[in-house]
Write a structure and sequence with these properties.
This protein has 393 residues and is an all-alpha fold. The protein has helices spanning 2-7, 11-14, 16-35, 44-57, 79-88, 92-112, 118-136, 142-157, 161-175, 191-207, 215-236, 247-254, 263-274, 286-302, 312-324, 332-346, 355-362, 370-385.
């Protein structure tokens, strides 16, 4: 496996322009494929997204069912109407392509902001390419959300708390997941500035959607949003759901019991994650910081009952960051976990995994989550075991 990894040191794989172009090409081809499929369900997410804007300006409920316009419901906050506006005003095909390209370039930019050498950045992009494809085929906001989380981390390290706060608040107001950016609070060297910046952007971005609607509508919409999310959480935990690909979902499916509650798992996860902060002397060590980022990205997904297959671009980026900072040569444990993650998490939706195994084991038992769960436990162990700053080659 170490020899295979060395292949990624060849000129083609180490040229940032090639992998960037491939990601952008994936975004464009995916948009074209879904649009010309003749099946609106293939780009249903985009139809939901653009109508968040149109429903906002017409002061229509953002969370009611609109079966003539799209399937399912919207679950994104009012700020999303402003974010999607430039794309919603375009013809659908052009809007789809540019939305996917915008999300793609944003995530690439975020990954390039990580405090790593260029060869490791490129390796992360190669590792995540298939998981990115899975997400972008669904026009998922998760590609952009992953970038928001990573940028909040990167800008804190650069002592640019004002901008880190912006990305955190955007994430919170659009999909709530962005709140995990607050996990990087202790990495800030100017915590007061960080807190004041969070308050500033919380006010500005709360008011911003009112410019295309009204204060009364937006306030009522936030209340309705929280209610809708509670309902969605209940819907997620059915045994035949395409969501709940989480540590809780594994247990619910294993024991065929949809009533196993989230709370004990989440409390356990928070306590274990919180133990990471006991390493106070390591806060400003790069290795600790990158392990914490990996932990946050994976935690966000494996402890959420809303997690579905395309959500795993968030967690798999955490896996990739964890892998590239491992000491060389890679240990057997590291290689085994990484290979399992590639096969079961990233490639499970593809034909690389036999259909029988995918349909009878991976999907029914939410096994896509399992490698990420195992790697997350290892990350926590690695954080707690830190004694001195390891060398990141």
């Amino acid at each position: 496996m170490n020899k295979i990894i060395n292949i990624f040191r060849l000129p083609f794989f180490t040229n940032k322009k090639y992998i960037t172009a491939i990601w952008c090409l994936i975004a464009i081809v995916s948009s074209l494929k879904q649009f010309f499929s003749g099946n609106p369900y293939k780009y249903n997410n985009y139809l939901i997204y653009k109508n968040v804007f149109f429903h906002s300006i017409n002061k229509l409920s953002l969370f009611s069912a609109y079966p003539i316009e799209y399937y399912d419901h919207n679950y994104y906050g009012p700020l999303f109407g402003v974010l999607i506006a430039p794309f919603a005003l375009m013809p659908d095909l052009l809007g789809m392509i540019l939305w996917c390209l915008f999300s793609t370039v944003f995530l690439i930019w975020a990954i390039n902001k990580l405090p790593l050498k260029e060869d490791k950045i490129n390796l992360i992009l190669w590792i995540c390419a298939h998981e990115f494809l899975t997400s972008i085929l669904s026009f998922q906001f998760n590609v952009l959300l992953t970038g928001l989380i990573v940028l909040s981390f990167a800008f804190i390290l650069e002592k640019k708390e004002f901008w880190a706060a912006l990305f955190i608040i955007i994430g919170i107001y659009v999909k709530l997941y962005g709140i995990v950016g607050l996990a990087f609070f202790f990495l800030s060297k100017n915590k007061l500035k960080f807190i004041l910046s969070l308050l500033f952007w919380a006010i500005i971005l709360f008011v911003l959607p009112m410019l295309i609607s009204s204060p009364e509508f937006i306030i009522a919409t936030y209340k309705e949003w929280f209610g809708r999310l509670i309902v969605k959480n209940t819907e997620n935990v059915t045994l035949d759901s395409m969501q709940d690909i989480s540590i809780m979902g594994i247990f619910r499916r294993l024991f065929h019991n949809p009533h196993i509650p989230n709370t004990p798992f989440i409390i356990f996860g928070i306590l274990l994650f919180g133990a990471s902060y006991l390493k106070i002397k390591s806060y400003f060590q790069k290795h600790y910081q990158l392990l914490l980022l990996s932990s946050v990205l994976i935690f966000t997904v494996i402890f959420s009952s809303s997690s579905e297959s395309p959500t795993y671009i968030i967690a798999f980026l955490g896996v990739a960051v964890w892998f590239v900072i491992q000491p060389r040569p890679y240990s057997k444990t590291t290689l085994i976990l990484f290979i399992i993650a590639l096969l079961i998490t990233s490639f499970s939706p593809s034909d690389i995994i036999p259909e029988f195994f995918r349909e009878n084991f991976i999907k029914p038992y939410a096994l896509k989550a399992l490698p990420c769960v195992l790697i997350w436990f290892k990350i926590i162990y690695e954080i707690l075991a830190i004694k001195k700053e390891p060398l990141i080659a």
